[in-house]
Records
---
Amino acid sequence: MNFNIDFYKQALEIEDEIVAIRRDFHEHPELGFEEVRTSEKIKEFLKKEGIPYKEVSKTGICAIIKGIEHGKTVALRGDMDALPLEDKKDVSYKSKIQGKMHGCGHDAHSAILMGAAKLLNKNKDKFKGNVKFLFEPAEETVGGARYMIKEGVLENPNVDAIFGLHVAEQIEVGKIGIKYGVFNAASNPFTIKIKGKGGHGAHPEDTIDPIIIASQVILSLQTIISREIPPVYPGVITVGAIHGGTAQNIIPSEVEIKGIMRTLTSEHRELVKNRLVEITEGICTAMRGKCEIDIEESYPCLYNNDHMVNHLKLSAEKIIGNNNIEILQHPSMGVESFAYFSNERPSAFYFLGVKNKERGIVNPAHGCLFDIDEKSLALGISIQCEAAFQYLTRN
């Protein structure tokens, strides 16, 4: 099969519909595993388009389009959840839900995936194989992808490859950013409880001060990054919270530290976890205290497959031209739930530019003024369609 489909032209034909969907989602944001309304809207859309689907992972959806013959299966993913954030933009589609906002672009991701489903369904007589559409819940919190994987969204039929995108306010609309290798860091949140012996602040000799111990621990943990990880490999240990004590003249019996680790290789991930335990236990023992350490296994590294990135690049060139494709040199130390998919199947994840200085669309994601240039929606739809279509017809 050798069809030449102008997906961008087709995307422009449904642009108004997709913009309306995105704005509706933006006005009605829902947090992780609470995306009931969002899920219903997506299912209504799929029913209208005649696209079969199944419900997964509470509010998630796995839809599928089958081509004219058996063949490979490619998946496209879009996340659905919003953030616990107050929307302070002055726009007609401002969030109507107090304290909740699509501050990371997942409304756009879902709308783009719906648009891609509509166009690929329209052209399903021109490819063989299958396209799965993964609408992921709870990306921002627990990583809905891992629950979807456990429930079999990559099986029956087996998914051979996956494409995903994320809107990026640092890239101009009309452009995308791609990267080979590691795209996002792995994360490990941790909690450390340091136990000492409380007492009167005027008589420290009668106590084992957990605040002093905690201070030593916090400073020493930074040496893992500065002295045990090679400088050419980024890593982060952030202590974001410390709680202990009730008054100026009382030494408490316990202090709690909360933080997060970010690493870019599985080897460094294990090293940082192990050394955090060894250093914390060593300091507590030396200072006559005790500790309890809990390290969570959170998002893994997001690995882009080189072959898949090359395929994506060729597909995107057809839509936006080579001059509008930025090759990113550095990974993000942020995390991304798509990583769970990328650890299971060959994948390509990329940034879709949404920045527009002239319109003041420059504010960072996870901020109360975040917005996108909606011209990016048709581009996202067409690139996703082209990547999936070319994968099924040329591989």
Note: The first strand starts at residue 53 and ends at 56.
---
Amino acid sequence: MSRWDIVIAHQHKRILDGVTDYWKHSNYGESLHLRVFTQRDTLRHYLRLKPGIHMLVSEPELLQELTQEDVSGILVMALSTDDGALEFTFPFIVENPYQPLSRLFHIITERCQLELSQAADQSLAHPCRIVGITSAGGGAGKTTVAFHLAKHAVGLGQRTFLLNIDPIQEYSLLRQPRGEADEASASLSQLFYYLKREQESDKRLPVPLEQYTVSLPALGASTFDPLHMMEEWGVIDLKLMQRLLHCIQASGRYDLIIVEGGHEHRPFEAVWSMNGEVIWLLHDEMGHMLKSQLIFQEWMDAEDETVRRRPKQMRLIVNRYMGTLMNRWTYREAVVSGFLPYIPTWKQIHRPEQWFQSTVFESTLANWAHTHLNLTGLDSLRRTAQ
């Protein structure tokens, strides 16, 4: 049985005492975790700080100054007899406050179960693809390709999530200055705690993913806070990464997850294990190509059949192409599928916006994605996240 986190707010403590007393002595004490508030300020602070809240039940007066950001990912139930007079900046449902507590708690439980079921159905109906970007070493252009691919996908209507699993998080260069909302956002350690609990209990726990994500306005995509990712990088193993990717997929909020990171990092193996599509970047340079060939040959000699299939499953792109080694790639098990233009000025980038000033690179990558990833004609898939 799932244990739902419920917040009930009312200005009169006497009423909340009655609700709490009923909850403690009923069977709902096992299925619901309850917190109660009488003050708007403390309620708002708790909503923003505490992850895992499933429903807020409140009288209308305490909902008046709350914003969409305050209740993002939380079901809101307003206790009122006049639903026509209620206006808030976020979605809500209305229930009669003058009904038996047994009936009210029954409705709360049913609503939570319904939302979980609908989210699962939506996830199955609209599968979220995983695309991994990796290479034989650093400096191959993984971040540049990830940024441009994400921007292109967003332009086609794809709700895109960027995930960097390397210890250095260049995504912080595209973040806006940290504001009050960022300071109050939940730490990734809390998300990982929920995922580990899910792993230990071997059942899915509803996780409010939106409380941990931040936006990259230059791309129109979402990601985890880069500073939080650097702090938690050392605790992410293969199993946790699999849970994390599943959590993002199951949220129903994204159509595409782009994962960039070094192939040697164990968490990147989650991309292969979850049937993701992998892009391998090659430098137009002999040493880098030789290193890639040695890695591929090591995989081909592995005992694990899934590892042996990797070179054939990947799509190779030669990045920073100068044309000097076009015919030197001889590894037949992995065929080069495209070439990205070499632009020397990228070595002198000193402003983040310069990343997106090459129309040649953008169009080349867009054409490649159209052919090899089928990233085209997706405007009809644009949907508003629930």
Note: Residues 151 and 219 are 5 Å apart (CA to CA).
---
Amino acid sequence: MFESYTIKDIAKALGLSTSTVSRALNGSYEIGAETKRLVLEYAEKVNYRPNPIALSLKEQKSHSIGVVVCEVANDYFSQAINGIESIAYNRGYHVIITQTHESFDRESANVQHLLSRHVDGLLVSLSAETTDTTPYKYLHEKGFPIVFFDRVATDVNTHKVIANNFKGSFEATELLIKAGFKKIAHLTNSINLLISRERFDGFKAALDKYGLDFNPGYLKHCNHGGMIQDEVEFAIKELLDMDERPDAIFIGSDRLTINSMHILKKLDIKVPDDIAIAGFTNSDVAELFDPPLTVVRQPAFQIGQIATELLIKTIESKWPVEDFITEQVEIELIARSSSQRIR
């Protein structure tokens, strides 16, 4: 076992008061250069490390960040979390990750738990069920640092980091139209989420540009975002059973896109012969599907990094932060065989 030295031990060894040692370790201007040198050299010699629990009690800071996402087993969020941790770790913060599984009640419980752990701030991506953001407004108004990413709360005036959802959806739908598909369905997440509305707007704008009518029957919402396989399968079967079956589907979220490919294969529907597919996903195996999958890819790692930088900047600000930004990052459309018409 390593012997753990305290400020009292250093003060006793050097014949100084504990307050002098504490101020010297913190670089206070009240302490002379020679005293600082003696204290720092001795602290290094005995491998002194501040007690994080004592520090958090004294400073009311835990040097930890709470993260709220729908699920970790999601290609987008796993990459975003890697981005979050890459910044937080290097800045001396621990990361506590919680999952909502698209439940508002679980999200509320997670936030309460994180607050009870005295996290210094929150990085939040809302659940599909969340429509009441009053708790976040309350925390924000009290000065508690919150940054939203991906699934953001429009009515909480704080930092937000998003992808260009409209552009990604427009370009993917336009790609399908230019490939010759005219009857394009849209499978997406809960209407509660701003990203669902933005992605629908991009989809609809592409149809409008090329003079294609929007068929309301072609719009299917999966409120659990692909986490319940039967929900996705039911939506796809409804589309396939229509008298005027769609010839392509644009899919608006990561897990929905991957699950749809599995379900279509199970139903013996050939892509793109029977129906073409393009969708949002950050899956690293999208190009290994049969056929390779056309995707809208978001810079999830970068989004996680930007959100964390903004949060830590807010946490460490010496003055109340009043100016907030919404950072929008660009998507990448990767065209592959799943969206090409077989000639």
Note: The chain has a mean pLDDT of 92.
---
Amino acid sequence: MPYVLSALDKSPLAGQDSPTDALKRTIAMAQLAERLGYHRFWVAEHHNVSDLASSSPEILISHLLAHTSRIRIGSGGVMLQHYSAYKVAENFNLLASLAPGRVDLGVGKAPGGLPLSTRALQADRDPSRKPDFVQQIAELGAYLDGKGPVEGLAATPLPTVAPQRFLLGASVESAEFAAAHGWEFVFARHLNGDDALLDAVATTYRSIAGKAPIVAVSAIVSEYAGEAIAEAENTKLFKVHVPGAQSVTVGSAEQAEEYARQIGASEYRIEPKQSSVIAGTPDQVWSEFDRLADRYGIAEFIVEPAVNGSWRLATLELLARRRSAVAA
């Protein structure tokens, strides 16, 4: 079945890169994605991570909109727990007014960092008055619809074309929640490659929303299958479970242990996750996209290159070149 490709970037530093180098690469990736016909280009939010330069997606989105002309630009995503729903709505209504019809607002429930950064981001908030995620989503949606929960209060400016809204997650519950609130759902397969879970999520979301979720994937593409597969073997994920706290997925056992240390937990469990990276030649990677699209009815994949440096741009180009060859 036909499907479109989009791209996700976290602005990783490679080698001796400075943050400026990483962000210049992100701009180049967005411009390349636009030339190659990708549907949308998203940037992420990560805090207190020295090798990632994308900590404020709203600022980066504004810059990317100014350096592209057609492709949709958005967040993948804003970590809503840290912020006022009203302010997030203002930010994205302003972006949507700057670039009508081109702005996506993706939000996630995760913290986007370890407990030290979470405490810093929420230091001035009274925990007893902090709204839960359900309430935040409801408020955010209302403000975006121009119908805020407080009479006489609007998240101005009110754009002629509202930002398209997406909820990011990796659970059946998140899919149900997105469908019930009228949000598009993006399944984070790049963090969880369990096809049984994807099957349950797709079935649930389709039964309520009448369509399939979007699927985010990690990919490593090379003209040489062995090179891509060898690189994928270096990609590992770990999920850390702490009683009474939110479980998080991180990129190393050391990060998992650091999460437990920062939260002050003496009891925790670290669960190694099966690699969800799709690796191989362009034909092999597209074949896996085809399999997932046929099995679950997926109409869009958001591709995160699971490599650093110029290989990130090459990943987008190799996938697009293969698509063009098949179309020809």
Note: The domain at 4-235+275-327 is CATH 3.20.20.30 (TIM Barrel).
